[in-house]
Amino acid sequence: MLTRRVKYGYGVGHVLNDLCSAIWFTYLLIYFHHVLLFDNSLSGVVLLIGQVADALSTPFVGREADRTDDLPFCVRYGRRKTWHLVGTILVLAAFPMIFMGCLVCSGAQDLAQLIYYAPFVVVFQFGWAATQISHLALIPTITQDPHDRTELNAIRYGFTVMSNVVVYSVTWLVLGLDTTQGGITPEDASKFRYIVVIILIIGAMFAASFHILVKENNNYTNLGASSPTPTPACVSQDPEVSSCAADALPSPAVVDVPPHFRMKAMDWFREIQFYQVALVYMGTRLFCNLTQAYVPIYLQDSLHLKQTSVAVIPLVMYTSGFLTTMLIKPLNKKMGRKASFLLGAILGCSGCVWLYLGNGEVYSKYLVYPMASLLGAGGSVMLVTSLSLTADLIGPNVESGAFVYGAMSFTDKLSNGIAVMLIQSLNPCTKCCPQCSWYYRGVLTFCCGGAAILASLGVLSLLSAKIGHRSRPISSTDEESASRDRATPGCNPDLPPYPLSPNDMDGWQGEGAGQEDKGDQGEGELTHNLTHNIEHTGEEYQAVPQGLRARLPSDPIEDVVI
């Protein structure tokens, strides 16, 4: 089992991103429109620049994070953690500049100020993408047990919710110090600066904790000087998921991983499930991000509540989401991933309907809270389950896991940026008036509800599919190797059940050593069998817990997986 240190150390690794994301999606439009007095379209352009920069960064970061095995620092520190560290530094440097005001052009036109803010937005989003993708890509590397993956995603999302709770609590405290004002005005600029500084200090401490607590196993050459005792027992896992692995090294447990292929970045584009899961993830993120961005504006422009409402109502949403995360793991075990996701979509759509029908003073004072709870609970279930589906899609192919997460995030960021830009551009007027006060009610009802339905259609298309199944054909040579591997489920009788050092290989005979067609196997013949099974790029190979790689003495150049 994964230790609590690893679980919760991993969970806090995305807190800085979550804190900044909460401010970005919840308060960016309000800050630029109500404080800096940008018009609706230019406010949307700022967010669009960030989302496009993030969308373009994620595939690049994902691909590069999968290719840095041989860089000296990455080998020592961990390729995922290296990118996480780079992203953290960029976020801490660029994000505060977005909310500090234009230092050299405070009195300039909106377009000139937009040019000033754009580079900081791009750098922040690149750093955010580097941190997000590297953090997500650690999950398939840490464990291939589907229930452990669900738990890691639940813990991660639990800290996401807690991060949002912290942001809204700090905002509530800072904005609530002045009880004389109604809505948010340009005089509140200094309050937003205080909020950002406090949040970044908290996020930096959690980022440091992650790098101290979590050790990425990135040892590609030294599998150990001594041989552990082979344990031939194979462990069966959830049939819905394509693979599983031992919880941690150096445990010698052998895992039940079906034969699969090494997947390069371009290979994923030939898998239909890649597009189906991307649709689910994109719809889920649209639902979560649009509710996060437009609920505060809805409270200010449609319901005309006081400024502390932009902290209190989102706080209710994420408290509901946090409580729901405690039920996600047992819910996934009992109902399965797909049914759990559909339940979350039903909760989210119910909140959208409640919001559309809500009106009057009673709704504004009391009934808005149950609506916020439904949105928070539905988004929580959908997001955690969609991340688990993505991890299941990757399965044992951790060699390109970062690219998959980057591609998923590309669809998320680009769709969110386009959606926000369209919503802001279609706003019928520049200032709040009775004629357009309910515009954002329609946005939250139809855009967010439509995103939940879109994601549900993606899940429905996967009902009859086994997540992680590869459609790539098997050659005749591969078929012989695969049939031999399947003779004992999850174990190859010709290979040792645990990676042995070269000095110990001659002591391993294999289960078929006594058979007539096997004979005595020395080190040379066993090494030949190993290289015969793995020398063909893209063909089947045996998975190793936590994605360990090794270099055989006979082939010092090529990376091979044993």
From TrEMBL:
Key words of the record: Membrane, Transmembrane, Transmembrane helix
Residue intervals passing through the bilayer: 12-32, 44-62, 83-109, 115-142, 154-174, 194-214, 272-295, 307-328, 340-357, 369-390, 402-426, 438-463
BP GO annotations: carbohydrate transport
Gene Ontology MF terms: symporter activity
Gene3D superfamilies (alphabetical): MFS general substrate transporter like domains (1.20.1250.20)
A GO cellular component entry from the record: plasma membrane
SUPFAM superfamilies from the UniProt entry: MFS general substrate transporter
The keyword Transmembrane helix is annotated on this UniProt entry: yes
UniProt cross-references to Pfam families, sorted A to Z: MFS_2
Database matches in CDD domains: MFS_MFSD12
Residue ranges, annotated region (Disordered): 473-562
Family to which this protein belongs: Belongs to the major facilitator superfamily.
Protein known as: Major facilitator superfamily domain-containing protein 12-like
Organism: Petrolisthes cinctipes (Flat porcelain crab)
